Input
Amino acid sequence: MPLSSPSIEKLIRKEGAERVSKTAARKLSAALEEEAIKISKIAVEFAHREGRKTVKPEDIKQAHISLR
Amino acid sequence: MPLSSPSIEKLIRKEGAERVSKTAARKLSAALEEEAIKISKIAVEFAHREGRKTVKPEDIKQAHISLR
Output
């Protein structure tokens, strides 16, 4: 998993958690990865439709907006 | 940043990108971190309201749902 549970656990602690169950960290990590995949798929589609091989920041931005 | 740009770049490539601009990877990484912070804040609040010091998977699940 690209979004490691330990770093996600740290992030949850930073927001005020005294303890974080391992499953909770894994759950957030999985949710973020799912979101990342959704955004990426759409961003790649945007780039390809414009005949580009490179995914640019505006592709990510538009993909993110389109998912809201 | 807990969600490193190189691993995010890999994820975007996996979804079909031939090239990914560094700024695009950074943008997705920042968007995911923002989402993680939002979910974490609410999850911590849920745990505290129930008098728990430990953030559990159900807190993450409910926080995620509440943001949709």
User: Anything to note?
Assistant: Residues 22-49 of chain A form the longest helix (28 residues). Residues 24 and 50 of chain A are 40 Å apart (CA to CA).
